[in-house]
Amino acid sequence: MDVSILKKGAVAIAAAGAMLFAGTAVAAPAQAATGYDRCPHGYFCLFSGYGGTGKIGIFKYGSSDLRLQGLDNNVHSVWNRSARPIEGWAGYNYKPTPPTTLDPVFYFFAYDVPRDLNDFAGGVVSSVRAD
Questions:
Q1: Residues forming beta bridges with residue 116, ordered by sequence position
Q2: Torsion of CA 29, 34, 36, 38, to 10 degrees
Q3: Which domains does the chain carry?
Q4: Which end of the chain is less enclosed by CB atoms within 10 A, N or C?
Q5: Are 101 and 51 contacting, i.e. CB atoms less than 8 angstroms apart?
Q6: What is the pTM of this model?
């Protein structure tokens, strides 16, 4: 048997193995954002759970009716990452709702830190807007 053929075969097998090994060195997929990290820069976000958990609503300008996002009277944490202050209202269409005398229920300045709302404020938010 010709030794040069064996050497060529061994080189081909080694090259194929190297390519196979190189092909398996793939980066792991990025982890999905969780909690407050789901809120993108330039937006403000409302969460149905405390600590940025639960259902999320991501807004640029707001919503006159949070029923559309499934967050009506169910906002327990907020992060404003927009360039504008935001207001949360007890009534639809940015209005107070008697007997609630707060108007708005909450007000956060631009790039405020993420925070939990107290049970009263979180239980009465029906509309939200960037000011």
A1: 77
A2: 50
A3: 35-130 (2.60.20.10)
A4: N
A5: no
A6: 0.72
